[in-house]
Amino acid sequence: AAINPGNSGGPLFDLSGQVIGVNAQIETMNIQAGGVPGNSGVGFSIPASVVNKVVPQLIASGKARWSYLGIQGSSDFTVEMAKANNLAEPRGAYVAGVQPDGPAAQALKGASNLDDQNAEVPIGGDVITAIDGEPIDDFDDLLSYVALKTEPGQDVRLTVLRGGTEQEVTVTVGERPNRD
Hints:
By secondary structure, the chain is α+β, with helices and mostly antiparallel strands. It has 3 helices and 12 strands, in the order βββαββαββββαβββ. The protein has helices at 48-61, 79-84, 139-149, and strands at 11-13, 19-30, 37-47, 67-68, 71-72, 93-94, 97-98, 127-131, 134-135, 155-162, 165-172, 174-175.
């Protein structure tokens, strides 16, 4: 939906009248001669699920805490990556790296060839296929679950493929550090 200047902070409704987000900003671009900014008609909103999680924390303590596992991956789990890792399909969240002092350091394995400049695709990393029994189709599913359905200090059960074998590991979710 187009958001005009001055609408930031207002609710974004769906056709049923439900609040689905809070308008946050608009995309502006130089659309007129002379470089005068104009509204491109593209708006960005904070999803209601994020607002519902953050606002009570801000009211209570003045800051929001976010969960994290301390892993690296991307939403680009390709067919080539799956084949290189002896998997039938690119389904799940591929763990490319694990932060050495992060929450998942003892439980998950990252790719073994990330330092190899000649490596075409990462190999050897775990693939997370479920968290607490919820299927994970890609890294974005994992990020959303961790951010919106967990709290720092909570244990989560991860179903992983490691070397082609399915197993379960438990990780205590950490609190994402500030990036001041």
